[in-house]
Specification:
three-stranded mixed beta sheet, Aspartate Aminotransferase, domain 2, seven-stranded mixed beta sheet, 389 residues, Aspartate Aminotransferase, domain 1
């Protein structure tokens, strides 16, 4: 993009004409099914706060107490003097929780993905990435200068064919979302692990949307699938979704974590998350493990919504997770339906290209353990009115 005001204006106008223009909403209340946004009260079905922990009093209390003790900012990078005892304890607890030797905190999931892939991959290497991977995994592969080879979504045959065209001595990585953020479906991680072992490749799973919400104890997709460190050498997960706080971590072998401490630029050259966030995340971890009813209720609500949507004939993208997308197609139509829901006091985002492929704009409905069946009923009733089902 040139330093040309006319070119900038033309770009913005084109986005508006394509119904792809985006603007932030201003929230004036805590995360909850009921929120005040842009001065209006809404019933929200668009948050990733899957377990309803973002405003949990025990987590808020832990944050406040840590802020009183450690202050607000960490002041520096982890390797200078920004690594607090709260960071260290959280890393140890996350490693134990996920069954990995070590864990390493990052400020965001985006930075974790960039840090890991850029530390492990370089020019001449190959990253095999699912077509529907999150933007952070795609950008990480591109910035690493490795060759990125994108296989068809969850298509193991497509992945195998790409490997057949790759030199046997090439350093490779298979990178995938655990739960795909816009479709809500799950990666075939067991089969990917088999292929990765056959090819002596790294396997990296971004479990941002599964961590906390899946597994007997909430340790995510890999716990649900009974997969250990040897099956998936690199686990990345975020704390800002089901855990209700902020930040991310990478878990794996002791040597992997030591290597990242020395080599991951997004770890070495950035300020550590505030200690109070780490303390709040530790409190969240206890609740995730103790209150399994949150996951049980979430699963019950998922099935309740799917049954109701099926009875109405809504075109859902197949998903058994908290992400329940209603496929619309055209961006303008998706925006129109989202606005009608908005007028009815229900907030659901219209997801459009480039976030999703052309012609697959959708309503991305997300459920939380804090929702009730009555609130789901209200959503279904409004969808029935709008679609005239």
């Amino acid at each position: 993009m040139k330093n040309d005001p006319k070119q900038i204006k033309a770009f913005l106008k084109e986005k508006q004409q394509q119904h792809l223009y985006r603007s932030p909403r201003i929230s004036e209340s805590a995360q909850s099914p009921h929120m005040q946004i842009n001065g209006k009260n809404y019933l929200c079905f668009c948050s990733n706060d899957y377990l309803g922990l973002a405003n949990h009093p025990d987590i808020v209390k832990a944050f406040k107490q840590a802020a009183d003790k450690y202050g607000v900012g960490s002041g520096s990078a982890h390797l200078i003097n920004g690594h607090s005892i709260e960071h260290q304890k959280l890393e140890e607890e996350l490693a134990d929780f996920t069954g990995r030797e070590r864990a390493l905190l990052f400020s965001t999931g985006y930075m974790a993905n960039l840090g890991v892939i850029n530390a492990l991959m370089e020019k001449g290497d190959s990253v095999f990435a699912d077509k529907l991977n999150h933007a952070s995994l795609i950008d990480a592969a591109l910035l690493s200068k490795a060759t990125m080879k994108r296989y068809l979504h969850n298509d193991l045959t497509s992945l195998q064919r790409l490997y057949e065209k790759t030199a046997a001595d090439t350093n490779t990585m298979i990178a995938t979302d655990g739960i795909f953020s816009m479709d809500g479906d799950i990666a075939p991680v067991k089969q990917l692990s088999v292929i990765a072992k056959q090819q002596q490749a790294w396997l990296m799973v971004d479990d941002a949307h599964g961590f906390g919400a899946l597994g007997k104890n909430g340790a995510g997709l890999l716990e649900q699938e009974n997969m250990v460190q040897q099956d998936v050498p690199i686990l990345m997960a975020t704390l800002g979704k089901a855990f209700g706080t902020a930040g991310a971590f990478v878990a794996g072998s002791n040597d992997l974590i030591e290597y990242l401490i020395q080599s991951a630029r997004t770890y070495v050259f950035t300020t550590a998350m505030p200690p109070a966030i780490a303390s709040a995340s530790r409190a969240s971890l206890k609740i995730v493990q103790k209150e399994s009813w949150r996951r049980e209720k979430l699963q019950a609500l998922i099935q309740y919504f799917k049954q109701g949507a099926g009875e109405l004939g809504l075109q859902l993208i197949p998903s058994d997770t908290a992400i329940q997308p209603v496929l619309i197609g055209a961006s303008d139509k998706a925006l129109n339906i989202s606005q009608k829901l908005n007028n009815a006091g229900i907030l659901i985002s219209a997801i459009r290209p480039p976030t999703v492929p052309e012609g697959s704009a959708r309503l991305r409905i997300t459920l939380s353990a804090n929702h009730s069946e009555e609130e789901v009923d209200k959503l279904l009733q409004e969808l029935q009115k709008i679609f005239k089902l």
